[in-house]
Records
---
Amino acid sequence: MSRKKKIVVKIGSSLLANSEELTLRYAFMSGLISDLAQLQKEGHDIILTSSGSVALGLNMIGKRPEDAGILDKQAAAACGQPLLMNAYRQIASEHNMDVAQMLVTVEDMEERRRFLNIKNTMMRLFENDIMPIINENDSVATRDLRVGDNDRLSAKVAQMVEADVLIILTSVEGLYDKDPSEPDAQFISEIEDVSEHLESTTSISALGSGGMLTKMQAANMAQNAGVETIIAEGIIERPISSVLKNERRYTRCLVTGETASPLKIWLSNRLQVAGTLVVSNQVAAAVVAGDCGIRRQDVISIQGDFVKGDVLHVYDESGAEVARGLTNFSSDETLLLARHIDMPVEDVIGYKTKSSIIGAENILVLEENHLPIDAPEEGQKLVVPR
């Protein structure tokens, strides 16, 4: 505890809100903030990723979690976010702690310039000993354009600030090899390969949008960014420092292998797929070997509606994802270029530029420990056979 750490803490709705009355659990919040304030006094930089706005706002619009649709949740988030932040601010003030609110969307985290702007804001807050409290902007996010859960959002934040540790507090002590309610369930204290434990992570709480599966996905993202992840029970007294000092049981997800550059990490840890390219197995093997980027004549098919600067996922003919990279063209331009490989680029799209769809300098070959994410369901466009 002597070295200054960057600590990202994620709190779910089930810890912050009573599941029946949909009211704040002030005792838990008070214990949490007291603990974080002490860690901040010891010199650590703290970021709190907090759910809870939707759960708290449902009462105001007369809805229960199980009956609420996307529009209800958007309205509930608008109602609940001020309640949540007001509670955090009041409790923090009792500990002479300053807090700031940051609401983000998936587009903020996936677009490079916005991502860096958020990072710069958090760095300035750290300089002034202010703790950022981050939540997804649920009042404007749609089903197709949302992070989906604050577990993976917290992993993106941990990646962003190059955190030492990501601590995800939940309603159980950590990960078990099966449903913890089963008598023969075994506790798992340490994990190297997250993918080996996905089958035991299917449950979702009544208030949260994620479950243990999203926590494992978050741990995988954090691992690939060089950040250790701890999954622990959200107790009232010293919920964070008791874990950091190994005073109670938890699951630790280790960091394995070498950590890539910040740009490569950003490329690899995605929350949504903007678009995909399918290339031949021969080209895929060359990409994996580090010999090339993706040229227009390499493209077999594309999927998704993307713009220049988006991150595309590259697949071989068998459907295995091999790389991710920044595209130099939109989906429409890529389709035209792939269909007219004998024409100069400027004649096809109307301006002169580099011809590669993804340059070799902007492509990242995926390791086996990267978990796949769902490809877009809409907008598939197949390249016309040449």
---
Amino acid sequence: MKRTVLIVGLGLIGGSIALAIRKEHNVHIRGFDISEEQMRMALSLKVIDEATPSIEEGVKAADLIIFATPVIKTEQLIQDLASYELKLDAIVTDVGSTKLRIVKQAECLKEKGVTFIGGHPMAGSHKTGVEAAREHLFENAFYILTPAKGTDLRAIINYKIG
């Protein structure tokens, strides 16, 4: 069965992650962005397979949830996840540059059977938006994963995306 990835935030980083995943894995990529225009553009550029009408709807079937949003927004969205129906054994990650408050917010996901692991890609561009996304943006770049104390690393190591 094909895995489902949800990417929240379809700008340069979120779009590039989607393209990189698509290049290496046979998955269904759903996307959400507060900008309807960015979602339409992501669909037309085949960055995502489907635009989801809401984050709450998008997370229900997601095996992997990636927040490519500003840190403050990510904190809020992770808190919102606590009240959403999530797939058991889903993995949630982010691309924020700071982790302390995000990791603290993500503690609520453990009791839902979901693993959170922070991420910080060390790549970027002077360009913005999904139209600037490139599947090779992360090649030869560090992508730092930041597991919190008590994170079940087996859930991450044994995870197969597709």
---
Amino acid sequence: MPNTVNRIINTFIKNGFFAYAVGGCVRDSLLNTVPSDWDICTSALPKDIKRLFQKTVDTGIQHGTVSILLDGGIFEVTTFRCDGDYKDHRWPEHVTFTKSITEDLARRDFTVNAMAYNETEGFIDPFGGAKDLKNKCIKCVGDPDTRFLEDALRMLRAVRFAAQKDFKIEEKTLASIQKNAALVQNLSAERVIAEITKILLSDHLEQIKTLYDVGILRFIMPELCKCFDTPQNIKWHIYDVGTHSLTAAQFLEKKSYLRFSALMHDWGKPGTKGKNPDGSDSFRNHAKLSVALAEDFCNRYKFSNADKSKILRLIKFHDRQILPEKKYIKRAVNDVGDDIFLDLINLKRADCKAQNFALTAPRLETYDEIERLYRQIKEDKESFSLKHLAVNGNDLKALGLEGKQIGKALSFLLYHVIDHPEDNQKEILLKKIK
């Protein structure tokens, strides 16, 4: 443990109280992972905590939590407690302070999070958390139904831990998640999307399929549920739409907007499914519907405007054909946006790898050539957007153009310069407009 954590714990012990490092920091230490923070629990009451330390903040005083400011760090300290009845499947209506570390650990979510430690007494593990940690098992403390009725977010947390740690969810716990899946409707959008994002950015994002299997996904992401229910009878694909989307996301770097774009890029397929003359499936114009569904999802879960913009543009253009020639690449960069053009190429690569790769593999060479030419365009500072034009709106206004005429003229000139870079001179462009 860090020296500061030891000092805090020892201060309590020297003054006649019990105190331990508890929860995630103990779990992560046993996994040889450096904890992101250290939570401390103690038999001392909040008033005692504030008396023993000079600098404190009442973080959650109603639940017995006080933050200690020491040596430039902030450490949350919570009095041992038993929780009363929960309201809205989130917060206990009241808490009762206790002197027992075992009673405090008994109210926690999973056995691997219900362990405590200090250097005086050593390891406190009344519910077998260390054994479950060794067996890579997520198991509720006590009755799973009780734990999930207390806080429905624990069901998402179980799947998230499984994704982040590559653990299995114990059978009784998993069955309880399936039984209580509808409780997630009581959770705020912010809490739900935070857990979904962590799963999506993990090394085992396929655990999102677990949310579908236990029935949670239909309450938080019904659009993806329809994708898992939509097979693709077409030679280019070997997976249903949902599995294809998850597989594509696995091939992308851990940027949330990028993985969400992969997860949502084909959401329009269930609603646009048809038949080709040969009997195979068709999904014409699915990107347009995917954009609409993704926009609704982003609004529902309060994505930032920046992330939403990137996600919607990537989905809109994910199926756009880009020929490996500079003029076509420049046009695509202008339409998609220079900020995410390489993201689009990477999304196309991931999309390709998640299809019938025996047939789609040759596309990767095309994407490599597009990226090479794009980097060359950037290095040579060739024009591909309005800001690169040798003329601007004021120049065209001086010629007598106004309103929409200016925009149309600039667009015309840009496409001309993309095809004829040597003409990007003010005199030449103004002459063309005249």
---
Amino acid sequence: MSSSFNVHNAAGYEQLMGRWSQKLASPFIEFAGLADGEKVLDVGCGTGSLTFALAKAADLSEIAAIDYSPVFVEEAIRRNIDPRIKIGQADACSLPFEDGGFDRALALLVLHFVPEAGRAVGEMRRVVRPGGVVAAAVWDHLGGMPGMRMMVDTVAALSETGRQLRNRYCFQPMMQPGEMKRTFVEQGLLDVTETQLVIRMEYQSFNDYWAPIAAGEGPLGKYVATLDAPERARVDAAVRDAYEAGRLDGPRSFANVAWACRGIVP
């Protein structure tokens, strides 16, 4: 299994996370670097948040984008109007590209959903030329995602299965300080740098926040989908109470932190 992220439909993912990965793409590209004429690989492209941002950020010669999910691949292909972009289904741990064929390989919000994350980093290094760049970013689920922690902490207070969800969610691969940097070094990358990227997630209402999770999208939605009707009603009410925090339903804003790491191929 090359991904622990579950997706039902592209629209649900966009509301859950796609709109935020679009915001994160710009600072991530600035951190990873980019230059005209380069060939760039987007590993775990999803619906194309980073892919299409790359196309706008520089005059690249080629952008290859892969994802494990056929739902994501189909949607990214549907959206693509740029002949430089080639999108296909593939496994991050077994990239279907020759050695050294790219100037950069980037992965935005992907590695924490890859059980063999180190192997994926090794594959990214393999397909990048000497002197090229490998870069990745993942959410800090433990300490940098207060909007999502609001939900997992709420369900953890309600049941043992909720506590198990929190344990899984907060300690996925690559999320602890220095963890991704160590992995990059272990995979032979040089001049490895780790930093934090911050965006804000702005919700218009509780429904704007909760609807994709309630529909079963992502790891939190996968948990909600397992609940029986009484427990589901209890969770819905408790999370709504946490979101509203004693005020009327309406807009809420949460700062969110991602760890980002960059290294040079020797």
